[in-house]
TrEMBL record:
Protein keywords: Metal-binding, Signal, Zinc
Record-given protein name: Peptidase
Gene Ontology molecular function terms on file: metallopeptidase activity; zinc ion binding
Active-site residue numbers: E482, Y554
InterPro entries: M1_LTA4H, Peptidase_M1_dom, Peptidase_M4/M1_CTD_sf
Secretion signal span: 1-31
Domain Peptidase M1 membrane alanine aminopeptidase: 445-611
CDD domains xrefs: M1_APN_like
Keyword Ribosomal protein on entry: no
Amino acid sequence: MRSTPHKSLGAAAVTVAALAALVLPGTPAAAQPSTTSASCSPAQVVANGGFESGTSPWAASTGVITNSSSQSAHSGSSYAWLDGYGSAHTDTLTQSVTIPAGCSAASLTFWLHIDTAETTSSTAYDRLTAKIGDTTLATYSNLDAHTGYVQESFDVSSFAGQTVDLSFTGEEDYSLQTSFVLDDIALTTSGGSTPPPADSTRTPATPSYTISLSSDTSGTVWTGHESVTFTNASATALSEVYLRLWDNYHGTCNSMPIKVSGVSGGTAGALSVACTALKVDLPAPLGQGQSTTIGFDLSISVPSGADRFGHDGAFSFIGNALPVLAIRDGAGWHLDPYTNNGESFYSLAADYKVTLDHPSTLLVPATGTSTDTPGSSGRTVTTATATKVRDFAWAAGPFTKISGTSSAGVAVNVYAVSGISSSSAQSMLSTAERAVDAHAARFGAYPYGELDAVIDNNYWFGGMEYPGFVLDLVSTTALTHEIGHQWWYGIVGDDEYHSPWLDEAFTDYATDLALGKTGANCWNNVSWGSSAEKITNSMAYWDAHPSRYSTVVYGYGKCALHDLRRVLGDTAMAKLLKDYAAAHWYGVSTTAEFKAAAQAATSTDLTSFWNLHRIEG
């Protein structure tokens, strides 16, 4: 317990961007790790990161580590509470950590809650500084107060081979409390000493997934088997693959919603990246052009909550629940952390055959084209087949379903939860029919057969896209946007963690066009938050500056594309995007490739355009 009670917490909280989140510099020459070859077993190197085991091995100011009921833990019952006195005060929290030399990837994550009694919207009176070694990762202040916890994430791989202090320092001025509350601190390492592939080929390629699952009576627990066949497209042999168990973000490593067991065709290794990545060692290196299959038993438990993975009462939404193969390319394995602000779901186009055995009282909309056949007593078997999709999602519940066909012949289904009026459902069906045709006319024919839209006004996130399957509120703009993602993410893929603008900005631009908006003068309203802020920043940056994410990536991003249209002309811009989509159909887009395509479409040198709009890459 603290020796001095905290002041009453302020009733209001202002959410703005963090004061600073600095890019980690390269390791100083004097501190470079040894170049001796070393191996890396994926591990979590912070001890007692949830503060449930007392104070050790943390060095902390008196009373910082606590289970006081005056604040809430992110998980468990204990947490670290820095400051909150409303008087001049400094609190510290430090642990020495060792990042193994053989690890090519190291990610620091922590959950942070800030509340304040300060009333200013412009002055940072109280600050929390997060550091590793002598490097400042980020500085937060009373201006960053927000309801609940937000996860922060930083790449600290440049510290491989070093033992350094991980430290947090909270400094409070003479009046009006600000509380900085930390929990579930983790530093996850992965990646061995094997150098990255010599070529940039993305692999494992041409994955084909076969899944058979059976649900409980509510549709919230699914168990069964999954297998995936894949080919190594790279000249560098594959000795292992990684499965992304993305939805373990929604639990803990001690209580995982996604559980894999009984692996065949390989040997299961350690879980890493907060238990969202599972290494599977192959029995023998897989050479270029060779194929193999791995399989495993799978258990999925859907948590409560109207989320992209969660259930809203009787209605379950099951996105990113199926383990999918991570990508290896010239940069090595992509094992980025889950982000709740946007997406991390970088995957190659794959084929899926998914069999879902469920009570007949539940409708089960899903990615792909579905057929229903009678199962055992009172049950139905829904078989969904999807070709060249990047993920597979489904829902389960006593939905109200209405169906239609767009003018271009696309079958569209709307599944509404209870509480959605029939007129609202019909409006969303009409919106979906118009939107799918409008986007197809601009970027190429819709290839996924049917399109399912699951409507629930309780979604906190607004809407979410999956191939042939979207979650959305009753909103014309939002549904038009999510359907636009069928092209910009679904058909034309991208690395959503490192280049979120390539799907979000392009989709928001497509939404404007579909709704007849010209984006006139929208670039005139741009005001950068800092010199580090760019349209092309990764989710690591936006997770440290969450309040700026939609403003810059969606808003400034689409305005930049409207500006590019004005430079190229309407006809040339329309041709650029249609040709670019065709050239990257079922492939992966990069910023460099798009910039090159845009430059090829005009005799005007676009260098100053990219610089002005802060589009780098």
